[in-house]
Amino acid sequence: MSTSQTPEDAQDTKARLRDAIRKTAPGTSLRFALDMILAGHLGALICIGDTDNVLAAGDDGFRLDISFTANRLFELSKMDGAIVIDRGLTKILRANYHLNPSPSLPTSETGMRHRTAARMSLLTKAVVISVSERRQVVAIYVDGHGHQLQSVPELMSSVNQMLVSMQSTRAQLDRALLRLTTLELDDYVTLSDIADTIYLFEVLMTVSEQLSDIILQLGSEGKTIEMQREEFIGNASSDYTLLIRDYAKDSSEEHAQCIRKQLHEISNSQLHAPDKIAELLGFENKGEESIMVPLGLRTLSNVSVVRKGMADKIVDEFGSLQQLLDDIEQNPSKLDELGVDNPSILADSLYRMWGKRA
């Protein structure tokens, strides 16, 4: 049986594994049972979902069909064999069930339970959980892919490091964006300035993703951490997209999302390379000191009187931020003609950012 996956299959596996992690997170009945099994120095093999195919891969055992509770799962784990539970975690269907997946199914696991769990996850669409009595380890398997559960203290150690990293990166990013706005208004933004800012956005987004994965594993213990993560992220994602639209050859939002995906997948060294950033933005033969002309979407969107969608309309009319500044100095009523509320406030806000007017 081949273990190669299409991109669609890989996405499905990832989604199912995340759902399995959510079901085994602290605060859930299943996690409570797993913690009791570990505390009791017991082992267990638990199959959740795809019950028809799971049952077809084994025999014997005890037919139960009883309501699922953490205490029942703990007590049944004292017997050998697998415990079979329905997908919704409402019924325990079998206990002491003897599973016989084909030994030809590939796995790199060594322990008996872990090998059986990995093979059952390849053979069926079940979520298979293996608890090692000797090593005191809980592993979840989906499509042959394993994930080892960590304790809350272990996870919190990583959380604290990531929160410090997010706070530091966010502070650096805020300073970089303020500097970038000044450079944009002065019409002196270089490719190097854009590359440095993009790098900070990518660091922030990467740490945020990693923290989200840990928050998922923390379950009910992760609510406060999620609030802190959201506070550090703020409006960074929308600002990131607007920054790319400001400088990409194709400024559509759809294309900006494609560029973001490419930026997220390239190596760290490439993120530091201005020529690679220029290539992804759609430009050739640009050096790090090349002048870049912004549309002004990000700067305009941060002005309070610019309603949602109005920044695009202004940019379509004026073409660039610098052209907007030049034109409104000569004809400020033009903003009024575009339907901008309080055009004088918008003009004053831009001039104050620019330092041209008190």
UniProtKB/TrEMBL annotation:
The keyword Electron transport does not apply. GO terms for molecular function: adenylate cyclase activity; ATP binding; diadenylate cyclase activity. Keywords: ATP-binding, Nucleotide-binding, Nucleotidyltransferase, Transferase. InterPro entries: DisA, DisA_sf, DNA_integrity_DisA_N_sf, DNA_integrity_scan_DisA_link, DNA_integrity_scan_DisA_N. It catalyses: 2 ATP = 3',3'-c-di-AMP + 2 diphosphate. It comes from the Bacteria. It holds the Pfam family DisA-linker. The keyword ATP-binding applies. SUPFAM superfamilies: YojJ-like (SSF143597). Residues 14-154 form the DAC domain. This is DAC domain-containing protein.
